[in-house]
């Protein structure tokens, strides 16, 4: 597997707090990479920096071999690095279909001759409908997005992100606030997406993480204390002590990532 994303000695400080503290890990093409860690470990801060919403104070992020430092958020999206609900937030009063149409149009650009417009429109609508089907919202096309359930809105956000044709999709807690059935549906959707793209997700639902991830990185106190397969992470002494285990206080180890 080729390396898709490399985070190297990344540092982000907020005043005296090192929210990202020399964090390093790689995401390989085709994998589902989960970023786990206790509350306040710095997971969202890391995702923000990768997506380009937050500038690191040190270190590097490479995507497909390119240093991302000069890339703004829009350029990262164009390069295939897309965060769910990064580009287009949901327009609550617009229908599900219109939301998806707008997202598809955003990617395709809008400058068209009048005689191309109709054909363009048909293609865009077909793509939007296909996205709705992919994320399980085919039956909701005409509903106002704001009237969807919480879980359906998360599905729509993923549909909007997919409109940008990501190579690497960043997902920050896709199952947050969902009941067991909704989480199960989201898990099925992510299983489907993994067939066509690489996923990097932050998630607190450990059952989902251990079922879905091909590799896991564990973040504690802004540092990646281990990276490995679910089996390696489950049996990693430092991880058990710092996070997964029931015994002992959280403790940052200096163990090298595997
Ligand atoms: N804009 C900010 N200004 C100051 N401190 C911040 C800011 N953003 C995050 N922090 C702090 O940085 C640390 C890491 O926060 P972050 O949200 O990245 O953690 P997290 O692992 O995603 O947590 P959770 O699992 O609870 O969502 C926390 O102590 C948080 O309070």
From TrEMBL:
The organism of origin for this protein: Roseateles subflavus
Family annotation (PROSITE patterns): ABC_TRANSPORTER_2
InterPro entries assigned: AAA+_ATPase, ABC_AA/LPS_Transport, ABC_transporter-like_ATP-bd, BCA_ABC_TP_C, P-loop_NTPase
Pfam families, alphabetized: ABC_tran, BCA_ABC_TP_C
Gene3D superfamilies for this protein: P-loop containing nucleotide triphosphate hydrolases
SUPFAM superfamilies reported for this sequence: P-loop containing nucleoside triphosphate hydrolases
Protein name: ABC transporter ATP-binding protein
Keyword Lyase: no
Keywords carried by this UniProt record: ATP-binding, Cell membrane, Membrane, Nucleotide-binding, Transport
């Amino acid at each position: 597997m080729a390396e898709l994303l490399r985070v190297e000695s990344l540092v982000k400080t907020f005043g005296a707090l090192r929210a990202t503290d020399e964090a390093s890990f790689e995401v390989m093409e085709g994998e589902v990479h989960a970023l786990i860690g206790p509350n306040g470990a710095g997971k969202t801060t890391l995702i923000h920096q990768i997506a380009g919403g937050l500038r690191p104070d040190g270190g590097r992020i490479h995507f497909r071999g390119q240093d991302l430092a000069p890339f703004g958020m829009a350029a990262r999206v164009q390069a295939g690095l897309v965060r769910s609900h990064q580009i287009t937030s949901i327009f609550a009063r617009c229908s599900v279909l219109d939301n998806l149409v707008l997202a598809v149009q955003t990617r395709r650009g809008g400058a068209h001759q009048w005689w191309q417009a109709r054909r363009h429109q048909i293609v865009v609508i077909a793509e939007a409908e296909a996205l709705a089907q992919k994320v399980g919202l085919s039956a909701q096309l005409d509903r106002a997005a704001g009237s969807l359930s919480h879980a359906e809105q998360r599905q729509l956000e993923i549909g909007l992100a997919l409109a940008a044709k990501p190579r690497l999709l960043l997902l920050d807690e896709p199952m947050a606030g969902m009941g067991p059935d909704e989480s199960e549906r989201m898990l099925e959707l992510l299983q489907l997406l993994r067939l066509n793209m690489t996923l990097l997700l932050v998630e607190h639902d450990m059952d989902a993480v251990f079922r879905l991830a091909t590799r896991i990185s564990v973040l504690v106190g802004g540092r990646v204390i281990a990276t490995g397969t679910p089996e390696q992470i489950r049996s990693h002494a430092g991880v058990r002590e710092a996070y997964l285990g029931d015994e002992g206080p959280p403790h940052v180890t200096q163990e090298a990532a595997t």
